[in-house]
Specification:
The protein is mainly beta. The protein has one domain (2-185): Jelly Rolls, CATH 2.60.120.380. It has helices at residues 2-19, 176-185; strands spanning 21-24, 35-37, 44-50, 57-63, 69-76, 87-94, 109-113, 122-125, 130-140, 146-153, 160-166.
Length: 191
C-alpha cells in the first residue's frame, strides 16, 4: 500500500512538471535583475509576487518573427487576492535582455494587457489540488527577432501572488524542489 501511494505521488509530480516547468521567484526581479527564459516556446510557470506597493517584476525572452509567443497570468486562490489582477506589458525588441534605465521599456511598447474581469473563471489544478483565478492570456505575433521584456505591475499598487506562464511546448524540467514545498512556502498571502 505504501509503495502504491508513493508511486502515485511521484507520478502526479511528474505530470505536473511535464505540464509546466515550475520556477519560483528566488530574488526580486527588477529591470536590472530580470528572470531570463531561454526558449519562449517551452512551457514554464513562474511563481512570483508583487511584494510591496509599487513593486514591478521584469522577465525577458528571446523572440522570433513568425513564432507566436504565449503568455498568461493566473492568480492563486488565496484569501485577500480576489481582486488582485496585475497588468502585463511586453516591450521590444531589444538587442540584449537588459535595460539601462527603466524608462527605456516604455519607448518600445509592443502590447499591454489589463485585466478588467469582474468575475474571473476559477481553474482547479488536480495534481497539486490548488485553484487559480484565470486572468490575462495572450498569443503575440512578434514583429521581429530580438529580446522581449515582460513587465508585471499593478496600477492600483496592490500586492499579491501570481503565476506567469509562457510557452506551450511541454518539456521536462523546472525547479523540482520548489514543487515539493510550494504549498508551504508560496501558497499564503503576501505579508
Amino acid at each position: 500500500m505504501k509503495n502504491s501511494v508513493l508511486f502515485a505521488l511521484l507520478m502526479s509530480l511528474f505530470v505536473v512538471v511535464w505540464a509546466h516547468q515550475p520556477f519560483p521567484e528566488k530574488v526580486e526581479t527588477t529591470y536590472q535583475n530580470m528572470q531570463i527564459f531561454k526558449d519562449p516556446e517551452v512551457s514554464i510557470a513562474m511563481y512570483a509576487s508583487l511584494d510591496f506597493s509599487g513593486d514591478v517584476d521584469y522577465f525577458a525572452f528571446e523572440g522570433f518573427e513568425g513564432i507566436p509567443a504565449y503568455l498568461s497570468v493566473v492568480i492563486p486562490v488565496i484569501p485577500g487576492q480576489e481582486d488582485f489582477a496585475p497588468d502585463i506589458e511586453i516591450a521590444g525588441p531589444f538587442p540584449a535582455p537588459k535595460l539601462s534605465v527603466e524608462e527605456e521599456f516604455d519607448s518600445r511598447m509592443v502590447y499591454t494587457l489589463v485585466d478588467d474581469q469582474a468575475s474571473p473563471t476559477v481553474f482547479f489544478e488536480p495534481f497539486s489540488r490548488t485553484s487559480y483565478w484565470e486572468r490575462q492570456e495572450v498569443w503575440l505575433n512578434l514583429p521581429t527577432d530580438g529580446w522581449y521584456i515582460v513587465r508585471v505591475s499593478d496600477g492600483r499598487q496592490r500586492t499579491g501572488r501570481y503565476v506567469l506562464a509562457m510557452g506551450t511546448k511541454e518539456v521536462f524540467g523546472g525547479d523540482l524542489l520548489f514543487l515539493l514545498q510550494f504549498k508551504r512556502t508560496y501558497w499564503k498571502p503576501v505579508e
